[in-house]
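FAQ: What does the model actually see?

It sees only this:
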Amino acid sequence: MVILAVALAAATVVAVTRGDDDAGAQLNALKADPMAHYVPPQSRLAKTVAVSDRGGGAFTKQQTAKYTRLFSLSSPRPELALEDAVAAAATAGWMVSEAIAGVAATGRRRLKTGPATLAISLTRTAGGLPEGVEAPAISVTLVHVRV
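And it is asked to produce this:
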Protein backbone atom coordinates (compact mmCIF):
# COMPACT_ATOMS: atom_id res chain seq x y z
CA MET A 1 0.00 0.00 0.00
CA VAL A 2 2.85 2.37 0.87
CA ILE A 3 4.57 1.57 -2.44
CA LEU A 4 1.38 2.43 -4.35
CA ALA A 5 1.06 5.74 -2.50
CA VAL A 6 4.69 6.62 -3.27
CA ALA A 7 4.22 5.70 -6.95
CA LEU A 8 1.09 7.88 -7.21
CA ALA A 9 2.86 10.78 -5.49
CA ALA A 10 5.81 10.46 -7.89
CA ALA A 11 3.48 10.37 -10.89
CA THR A 12 1.74 13.50 -9.63
CA VAL A 13 5.08 15.32 -9.26
CA VAL A 14 6.06 14.28 -12.81
CA ALA A 15 2.71 15.46 -14.18
CA VAL A 16 2.98 18.81 -12.43
CA THR A 17 6.61 19.47 -13.40
CA ARG A 18 6.53 18.30 -17.03
CA GLY A 19 6.89 21.75 -18.51
CA ASP A 20 6.17 25.43 -18.25
CA ASP A 21 2.82 25.25 -20.06
CA ASP A 22 0.10 22.84 -21.14
CA ALA A 23 0.84 22.95 -24.85
CA GLY A 24 3.85 20.68 -25.06
CA ALA A 25 7.09 21.22 -26.94
CA GLN A 26 5.87 19.80 -30.24
CA LEU A 27 2.72 21.94 -30.38
CA ASN A 28 4.78 24.99 -29.40
CA ALA A 29 7.18 24.23 -32.28
CA LEU A 30 4.25 24.05 -34.70
CA LYS A 31 2.84 27.34 -33.40
CA ALA A 32 6.25 28.99 -33.83
CA ASP A 33 6.41 28.04 -37.52
CA PRO A 34 5.69 30.88 -39.99
CA MET A 35 2.83 28.88 -41.56
CA ALA A 36 1.03 28.90 -38.19
CA HIS A 37 0.76 32.68 -38.65
CA TYR A 38 0.03 32.71 -42.37
CA VAL A 39 -3.16 34.52 -43.44
CA PRO A 40 -4.36 34.09 -47.04
CA PRO A 41 -5.25 37.22 -48.99
CA GLN A 42 -8.93 38.21 -48.87
CA SER A 43 -9.69 35.85 -46.01
CA ARG A 44 -11.14 35.79 -42.51
CA LEU A 45 -9.87 33.44 -39.81
CA ALA A 46 -12.88 31.30 -38.97
CA LYS A 47 -11.52 28.57 -36.70
CA THR A 48 -8.32 27.43 -35.01
CA VAL A 49 -7.84 23.93 -33.61
CA ALA A 50 -4.78 22.97 -31.57
CA VAL A 51 -4.09 19.44 -30.34
CA SER A 52 -1.31 19.16 -27.80
CA ASP A 53 1.25 16.40 -27.88
CA ARG A 54 0.83 16.11 -24.13
CA GLY A 55 -1.80 13.79 -22.80
CA GLY A 56 -4.46 14.86 -20.36
CA GLY A 57 -2.74 13.45 -17.27
CA ALA A 58 0.12 11.48 -15.83
CA PHE A 59 -1.10 8.16 -17.22
CA THR A 60 -2.24 9.14 -20.73
CA LYS A 61 -0.28 8.47 -23.89
CA GLN A 62 1.47 11.19 -25.81
CA GLN A 63 -0.62 12.38 -28.75
CA THR A 64 0.33 13.70 -32.17
CA ALA A 65 0.57 17.49 -32.02
CA LYS A 66 -1.56 19.23 -34.63
CA TYR A 67 -2.35 22.88 -35.39
CA THR A 68 -5.04 23.82 -37.91
CA ARG A 69 -6.33 27.20 -39.02
CA LEU A 70 -9.41 27.49 -41.25
CA PHE A 71 -10.08 30.63 -43.27
CA SER A 72 -13.22 31.69 -45.14
CA LEU A 73 -12.23 33.26 -48.45
CA SER A 74 -13.90 36.27 -50.06
CA SER A 75 -11.91 36.09 -53.29
CA PRO A 76 -13.82 35.30 -56.50
CA ARG A 77 -10.81 33.11 -57.41
CA PRO A 78 -10.13 30.92 -54.36
CA GLU A 79 -7.49 28.91 -56.23
CA LEU A 80 -5.25 31.98 -55.92
CA ALA A 81 -5.31 31.54 -52.13
CA LEU A 82 -3.97 28.00 -52.57
CA GLU A 83 -1.20 29.24 -54.85
CA ASP A 84 -0.33 31.98 -52.36
CA ALA A 85 -0.25 29.52 -49.44
CA VAL A 86 2.03 27.13 -51.36
CA ALA A 87 4.40 30.01 -52.18
CA ALA A 88 4.37 31.17 -48.54
CA ALA A 89 5.17 27.64 -47.34
CA ALA A 90 8.10 27.34 -49.74
CA THR A 91 9.41 30.72 -48.58
CA ALA A 92 9.09 29.55 -44.96
CA GLY A 93 11.34 26.56 -45.68
CA TRP A 94 8.78 23.82 -46.32
CA MET A 95 9.49 21.30 -49.10
CA VAL A 96 6.11 21.62 -50.79
CA SER A 97 4.57 19.35 -53.42
CA GLU A 98 2.82 20.77 -56.43
CA ALA A 99 -0.84 21.58 -55.80
CA ILE A 100 -3.00 18.53 -56.44
CA ALA A 101 -5.73 19.36 -58.97
CA GLY A 102 -5.88 22.91 -57.61
CA VAL A 103 -7.37 21.78 -54.29
CA ALA A 104 -4.53 20.68 -52.01
CA ALA A 105 -0.80 20.63 -51.41
CA THR A 106 1.44 18.93 -48.88
CA GLY A 107 4.86 19.63 -47.50
CA ARG A 108 7.45 18.47 -45.04
CA ARG A 109 10.03 20.15 -42.89
CA ARG A 110 12.26 19.46 -39.92
CA LEU A 111 11.47 21.53 -36.85
CA LYS A 112 13.71 21.84 -33.79
CA THR A 113 11.59 19.13 -32.12
CA GLY A 114 11.53 16.74 -35.09
CA PRO A 115 9.88 16.22 -38.47
CA ALA A 116 6.57 17.86 -39.40
CA THR A 117 4.11 17.74 -42.26
CA LEU A 118 1.96 20.47 -43.78
CA ALA A 119 -1.40 20.10 -45.52
CA ILE A 120 -3.07 22.98 -47.34
CA SER A 121 -6.58 22.26 -48.56
CA LEU A 122 -9.07 24.33 -50.53
CA THR A 123 -12.79 23.59 -50.12
CA ARG A 124 -15.19 25.22 -52.57
CA THR A 125 -18.47 24.02 -51.05
CA ALA A 126 -19.84 24.17 -47.49
CA GLY A 127 -20.29 20.40 -47.18
CA GLY A 128 -18.05 19.06 -44.42
CA LEU A 129 -16.94 22.45 -43.11
CA PRO A 130 -17.32 23.12 -39.39
CA GLU A 131 -19.96 25.53 -38.17
CA GLY A 132 -18.89 29.14 -38.62
CA VAL A 133 -16.67 28.44 -41.62
CA GLU A 134 -18.11 29.65 -44.91
CA ALA A 135 -17.11 28.30 -48.31
CA PRO A 136 -14.92 28.70 -50.15
CA ALA A 137 -12.41 27.99 -47.41
CA ILE A 138 -8.78 27.07 -47.05
CA SER A 139 -7.19 25.14 -44.21
CA VAL A 140 -3.57 25.12 -43.16
CA THR A 141 -2.67 22.14 -40.98
CA LEU A 142 0.68 21.50 -39.36
CA VAL A 143 1.30 18.05 -37.85
CA HIS A 144 4.31 17.00 -35.80
CA VAL A 145 5.38 13.55 -36.95
CA ARG A 146 5.88 11.08 -34.11
CA VAL A 147 9.13 9.20 -34.40
